[in-house]
Design brief:
This protein has 811 residues and is an alpha+beta fold. Helix content is 28%, strand content 19%. The chain is built from 25 helices and 30 strands. The chain is globular and about 95 Å long.
């Protein structure tokens, strides 16, 4: 058989080559269906028609599926660098960019070739012999910023300080002479964390930290009283004035004062002679990140042995993506997700059923992520991948895999997860399971999210002896932490006494001395099922307000039980606070006693509170517990009932949002008319919205909430995702008739004994900041997953978890 000339082969396929336009999405850093890159052994092949990239083992699948034969092959090879290369001094607070900290990233040589499939005929690039169209296409591909880079910023850069708007015209008053040392707060005995107001020379202490340490807020209170905007932290002033910590209370940020030398001279301060004695705000934030909790959760200072192999692949932090990394490591440690996206579905199967662009297909990207995490292909010491000498195991590191495409897909429909900001791991977990459920809606038997789903039932008994039942589905069991059940009350009392004495003397308590409450997990579970009084409950049987008792339980026990510890609570004035508490969690729990059996023989359901003369009907009844919480905020009973009914008893937050968005409605104060509501939800409007792709339960809820307007109902659906999710998950309320079929019907169920297998811990003052780490029980030992770092855990922080994952023990 005559061998075909590669150049002739290329010319015969020019019609399959496209020159990318400025708006084209070009992938050239990572394979669309695996985590192969130009640095992988086989390099990367960019389809010169679709601009999708494929690894060596997968480019043939793309040729079979599309028939596109021409590819740009990109291969990067590590350069040899002298070991005594001098390190550059950083000029920016950044990692991995010009001027930032040298993260010792190796340098690579990049080569390019044109490859024609299926024979893999190869032509070198650059070459003047190549057709002009090919040269233009390759130049455009190489010069374009990759879609991966556009969609995911890899570098972490601290926000640059801005020049204060108040610095140039700052007014200075008084004749205060500030001494070079010996400072003390003018309003208390604090001698650390002191700030000099640059207008009047007052020396005052800084803000109080969330845990009670720091200052007494006197500096910020002085600003509120006087309006004097700028202050400099004493102890940070040296001859290097740029390093001084200047804060603008008016702008609520650290700023630059170009005239700081002049402003200091007004108070007789010679900055050239001062020595640094205090940390700046940025340094203190970094220091707080190395405190006791941070170090313990990350097992800092421990001789953690790195682990490599299948199931031990780290995830690269894409910039505040640790919430996603920790959650996904635990999720893919479950058999349900492992079976669905790894054991029962290989990459080729997922690619063949994926749309033309597999980067936007959740099923494809979940399969890619599963194979990346579980195959072991990418869990190798970094040096072994480069082909250089392998260091001792304890010093070895792995590069991990960057879940860029997965993040782009799972976050596409969410305004927060699509940003680079830190997020709540709980919210992400719920959003993730919701998306997985939707993607498997056509084949619910394959849906792995169902292994987390269970039913919750609330029973409300009023003094009439009659009851009402409230049922819903959920993925997590959210638990309050009863601090009064702490087992170390004596130690706490002694510590609080010492802390009060220290604070009166202006001293802080060291992290080693802090005593935290220890609350058993059993107490949190018991608190969930404990009877709770509902005052001012309107009884439809008594036609009057009375006190009711609410109890809760589970109607099914899932394969995997996720416990959420409510460590973030709202104090008076809606101020969020993180509970500094330890939870004593056993390895095995038994929640059999939490099973709820529903309506029992002899129990009589409460009748509907229907207007006199109106026949009892199937119209919704307001959940009195939610109504009571809303009325306690100052809203009228009528408005609260309207809000609760129109959000189908989804919860206080949903009802509050409905209230705030409907306060200006003309009929907001009109009596509730169930007949009008039924008339408003006409079938033609329902059919119209259902044809748009919305679920019928959600459509009916939206039409009820908006008086039957199709346009307003559409807006309501998009603006009330939580209420829609509640409807989609099958929330049901019943009181005056025979209960419907169990809300947990068809869900996995079994015994109530569970074994702990995963922990997601959080370090920081808020779920929107800090860091998340996962600890997972694998192969009989605990393993820490800290982004791309994977190692044998020496002391897993079982008492510091935010989310606890349990697996049901089969009887």
């Amino acid at each position: 058989m005559k061998e075909v000339n590669p150049m002739e082969l290329l010319r015969s396929n020019l019609s399959r080559v496209r020159v990318p336009e400025p708006t084209s999405r070009i992938f050239k850093q990572e394979c669309c269906i695996s985590f192969d890159s130009p640095r992988s052994e086989g390099g990367l092949f960019v389809d010169m028609n679709t601009f999708l990239a494929f690894g060596k083992d997968h480019v043939g699948w793309n040729y079979e599926k599309t028939g596109n034969p021409v590819y740009l092959h990109i291969k990067q090879t590590k350069k040899l660098v002298s070991e005594d290369r001098p390190l550059k001094k950083p000029t920016l607070l950044a990692i991995g960019i010009d001027g930032g900290f040298d993260n010792n990233e190796p340098e690579y040589e990049e080569t390019h070739n044109i490859v024609i499939l299926p024979s893999y005929a190869t032509l070198p690039f650059p070459s003047v012999e190549l057709p002009e169209k090919v040269r233009l296409a390759v130049d455009a591909i190489l010069m374009a910023e990759g879609a991966e880079r556009k969609e995911q910023v890899a570098a972490w850069i601290a926000d640059k300080k801005q020049i204060s708007a108040y610095a140039m015209d700052l007014r200075q008053i008084g004749n205060v002479a500030v001494p070079p040392s010996g400072w003390k707060c003018a309003k208390c005995d604090k001698r650390e964390n002191l700030w000099l107001n640059l207008t009047d020379g007052m020396i005052l202490c800084g803000r109080r930290n969330w845990d009670g340490t720091g200052g007494n807020d006197h500096a910020v209170e002085h600003y509120k009283e006087t309006g004097y905007p700028l202050a400099v932290k004493l102890g940070t002033i040296t001859s290097d004035l740029e390093a001084a910590d200047v804060f603008s209370y008016a702008e609520d940020d650290s700023v630059i004062d170009p005239l700081l030398a002049q402003h200091l001279a007004y108070f007789g301060i010679d900055f050239s002679s001062l020595q640094k004695t205090e940390m700046t705000t940025a340094e203190r934030e970094l220091d707080q990140n190395t405190n006791y909790d941070w170090g313990r959760i990350q097992e800092s200072g421990q001789d953690v042995e790195p682990i490599f192999g299948p199931g031990y692949t780290g995830l690269v932090n894409l910039g505040n993506s640790c919430y996603m990394a920790a959650t996904m490591q635990v999720v893919f440690s479950t058999r349900s997700f492992c079976r669905r996206y790894y054991m029962n579905q290989n990459l080729k199967m997922a690619f063949e059923t994926a749309p033309a662009d597999p980067t936007i297909d959740l099923d494809m990207q979940l399969t890619k992520l599963a194979h990346g995490l579980l195959s072991g292909k990418y869990s190798l010491p970094a040096s072994q991948k480069d082909g250089t000498a392998t260091p001792p195991v304890k010093d070895a590191k792995q590069e991990g895999i960057p879940p860029r495409m997965f993040k782009a897909v799972i976050a596409a429909s969410h305004p927060e997860f699509s940003t680079m900001r830190q997020q709540d791991a709980l919210e992400f977990f719920l959003h993730f399971l919701d998306q997985v459920g939707h993607s498997n809606a056509a084949n619910p038997e394959l849906d792995p999210s169902r292994s987390f789903k269970f039913g919750i039932e609330e029973r409300i008994a009023c003094s009439s002896g009659k009851v009402a039942y409230n049922k819903r589905l959920d993925y997590i069991l959210s638990l309050n932490i009863p601090l009064h059940e702490a087992t170390n009350k004596q130690e706490l009392e002694a510590f609080n006494k010492i802390k009060a004495e220290n604070m009166s003397q202006g001293k802080d308590v060291s992290s080693d001395e802090i005593v935290r409450p220890r609350v058993p997990l059993e107490a949190c579970l018991a608190n969930f099922v404990a009877p709770e009084e509902i005052p001012d409950f309107y009884s439809s049987a008594l036609k009057a307000k009375t006190t009711a008792v609410k109890t809760a339980g589970l109607t099914s026990f899932p394969h995997y039980l996720v416990l959420h510890m409510r460590k973030f609570v709202m104090e008076a004035g809606w101020v969020p606070k993180k509970l500094d508490v330890y939870i004593d969690v056993p390895d095995i729990i038994d929640i059999s006693h939490m099973y709820s059996k529903g309506l029992q023989p002899g129990e009589e359901l409460l009748p509907d509170a229907a207007p006199e003369g109106e026949a009892e009907s199937s119209h919704p009844v307001a959940n009195e517990a939610i109504v009571t919480q809303l009325t306690s905020m100052g809203f009228s009973q009528l408005l609260c009932r309207k809000a609760v009914i129109n959000t189908s008893n989804a919860g206080v937050e949903e009802a509050m949002n409905w209230l705030l968005s409907h306060m200006n409605d003309e009929d907001i104060d009109a009596p509730i008319s169930h007949g009008a509501r039924r008339a408003g939800t006409d079938q033609s409007a329902v059919d119209t919205l259902v044809s748009f792709g919305f679920q019928e339960e959600i459509v009916r809820m939206a039409l009820r909430a908006t008086g039957g307007s199709i346009e307003r109902a559409t807006d309501w659906i998009f603006n009330n995702p939580k209420s829609c999710a509640a409807a989609a998950m099958g929330m049901s309320i019943f009181s005056n008739s025979t209960p419907p079929a169990p809300v947990a019907a068809g869900l996995p169920d079994g015994g109530g004994r569970y074994r702990l297998f995963g922990i997601v811990s959080h370090i920081g003052t808020s779920t929107q900041c800090g860091h998340y780490v996962a600890h997972i029980l694998k192969d009989g030992r605990w393993v820490i997953f800290n982004d791309d770092k994977v190692g044998a855990s020496i002391n897993p922080p079982k008492d510091m978890g935010y989310l606890y994952f349990f697996e049901r023990i089969n009887n």
